[in-house]
Amino acid sequence: MAILESFRRTTGRLQPPGWRLFGRWLKRRMPTGLYTRTMLIVIIPMLLLQTVVAAVFMERHWRMVTDRLSQAVTRDIAAIIDVIRTYPQDGNYSEITRIADQQLDLSILIEPNAQLPPPRPKPFFSLLDDVLASQIQTNVGLPFWIDTIGDSGLVEIRIKIDDRVLRVFARRSQAYASNTHIFLVWMFGTSLVLLGISVLFLRGQIRPILALADAAETFGKGQRSDEPFQPRGADEIRRAGLAFVLMRERIERQMDQRTTMLSGISHDLRTILTRFKLQLALAGDLPELQGMSADADDMQTMLEGYLAFARNESEEDIGVLKLSDLMEKMRADFALHGKTMTYSIDGEDELSVRPNAFLRLVDNLASNAQRYANSLHVEARHSAKWLMLVFDDDGPGIPENAREEVFKPFYRLDEARNLNASGTGLGLAIARDVARAHGGNVTLGESPKGGLRAIVRVPA
Prior knowledge:
Blueprint: H1 2-14, H2 17-29, H3 34-86, H4 94-102, E1 107-112, H5 127-139, E2 144-147, E3 154-161, E4 164-171, H6 172-175, H7 181-220, H8 235-282, H9 290-311, E5 319-322, H10 323-336, E6 340-347, E7 350-353, H11 355-372, E8 375-382, E9 386-393, H12 427-437, E10 441-446, E11 452-459
Parallel strand pairs: 6-8
Antiparallel strand pairs: 1-4, 2-3, 3-4, 5-7, 8-9, 9-11, 10-11
Helix pairs in contact: 3-5, 3-7, 7-8, 8-9, 11-12
């Protein structure tokens, strides 16, 4: 491992800064989805292969075929020029015109006392112009002018012979490999077919992964899925899906066992506690028994709080809860106790949560602020993906080193450890447990009002 780490550090130092910057830039712009990345893995090598094959084909085969065809045409033209110079002709060159048309498949026209026109601009793709000009220089060796531009199927070649100009019209297919595009059509056509098959195959492979992710997210939020999850896809995906199913079953069994055990403990403890309170009631209203009655009430409160924390309303189904109704209820409760509560809502008013559990979460945070502060402001931001509730009060707050400790069950700060004080030390623990059961969390910080800030963030 040390050798491997040393090699990585050495190679990292050898890379120039430009490569590292380019790597970071490319990484930021690469797609993050598995489907898109897999498609790129398929498409990029295919495009590179086709580009290399097409370049080699264009450079070698296409040029070679065009060179051979242009060579044949220019040699025929050279033969016509040799006949014109060697043998006497009639005034209108009818015989040589007939021979060129019937034997060489070339249409010629001889213009006496003529000059070559000015050169035409080369086309963007000048393979035919380059090859044809090279062959004319090699096989004819006279001044020439060629015209290969246009959609017509003819190529015009003009050769200057002394005081005459020989005009030759040849079919484009005689000098140019015009049917080579069929190879490219077949290559790209089959590539599109293969790409379509790859897309269908990849969609079938990605779908089980998305189903597994949805099932895990639903279970993490404590929700029940409408359709049972079944592992599908490749062997590796099936193994991951089966592992998730077994893990979910184990967790559900443990939750059921915990609930059953706590129900039994609750029944036993409540029976003993009821008997104890009955004995205190029968003993009469004696001053020396008032402390025991208060202890019994505290024990009853702690027992109910612990059972509520352990159950965490896990059996409750998802429902709809309105933020405005919840906030108005909190404001009325604060006003009843002579304190101030304000709120603001940004986004949708309705929530899809477990209503009783979420009410317990909000009520615990509000009760904590109501107990120690005079005013509370709640800011609710409900987006398409997340719900965020920010509680800001003007109370004494919580020291930074204790903001995680207070989420532990039965943990109370030094000022609140007196058994006669209200609270059981479970309010914040229950709030975080409910938030995490919804797939979110509760964190604490310092409020701009000088007190405590509690932030609830759960998936919408």
